[in-house]
Write a structure and sequence with these properties.
The structure holds 2 protein chains of 2 kinds. In chain A, a hairpin with a 2-residue loop joins strand 7 and strand 8. In chain A, about 0% of the residues lie in helices and about 55% in strands. The mean pLDDT of chain A is about 90. By secondary structure, chain A is mainly β. Chain B is mainly beta. In chain B, strands 2, 4, 5, 9, 10 and 11 form a 6-stranded mixed sheet that branches. In chain B, strands 1-3-8-7-6 form a 5-stranded antiparallel sheet, with no helix packed on it. Chain B starts with a strand and ends with a strand. In chain B, about 0% of the residues lie in helices and about 55% in strands. Classes of the chains: A mainly beta, B mainly beta. The interface between A and B is medium-sized, with 29 and 23 residues.
Chain lengths: ~120, ~110
């Protein structure tokens, strides 16, 4: 199956700093990638849809100036958490759309655990 | 508003028996459904999908059933194996384009050896 990687897998940072998370599709091109956030024992919450070559589409309630998304190529999307605060601590997961036409699905990365002190 | 619901947060099943995980949805526009498996601190792994034109899809030990009138789908795993122990999420989409998935809250399955 399709492979999606994320880097880093875990990051600890001080409050007020910015953190960049990379999402790569390793064996296919993804014009569309998605960023999710998961709190403990809760569902995956879609944060934004990342479109190659254009601005990301953010879900209601997600601050676009805080969670900067850049989809610079067909295989790379980045999420930057700016001026991180402890409440931003969470598990961030990206996914890339792929699969046969008409049977497309999302292939998920392994996730990035962010802890803001 | 949770459009996709998994009302059982956990399930324990004996190895070799059948595991049945349930999922309900409220949006009648959903017509593409998926099940994902997730281990702690890892991303979800796609398991099986079903489109609304079908009521059953089978892949090895995994079968998904869809009841559109009841807005209900279920995942059957038979026979259950200890390696199946994980959190299972169902997801729904208004199309099969792979966009805009809505996830349930997950059911933690434990298969007892």
């Amino acid at each position: 199956g399709a492979v999606v990687s994320q880097h880093p897998s875990r990051v600890i940072c001080k409050s007020g700093t910015s953190v960049k998370i990379e999402c790569r599709s390793l064996d296919f091109q993804a014009t569309t990638m998605f960023w999710y956030r998961q709190f403990p024992k809760q569902s995956l919450m879609l944060m934004a849809t990342s479109n190659e070559g254009s601005k990301a589409t953010y879900e209601q309630g997600v601050e676009k100036d805080k969670f900067l998304i850049n989809h610079a190529s067909l295989t790379l999307s980045t999420l930057t958490v700016t001026s991180a605060h402890p409440e931003d601590s969470s598990f961030y997961i990206c996914s890339a759309r792929g699969g046969r036409q008409g049977q497309e699905t999302q292939y998920f990365g392994p996730g990035t655990r962010l802890l803001v002190l | 508003d949770q459009q996709v619901k998994q009302n059982s947060p956990s399930l324990s099943v004996q190895e070799g028996r059948i595991s049945i995980l349930n999922c309900d949805y409220t949006n009648s526009m959903f017509d593409y459904f998926l099940w994902y498996k997730k281990y702690p601190a890892e991303g979800p792994t796609f398991l099986i999908s079903i489109s609304s034109i079908k009521d059953k899809n089978e892949d090895g030990r995994f079968t998904v059933f869809l009841n559109k009138s009841a807005k209900h789908l279920s995942l059957h795993i038979v026979p259950s194996q200890p390696g199946d122990s994980a959190v299972y999420f169902c997801a729904a989409s208004p199309s099969n384009t792979g966009n805009q998935f809505y996830f349930g809250t997950g059911t933690s399955l434990t298969v007892i050896p």
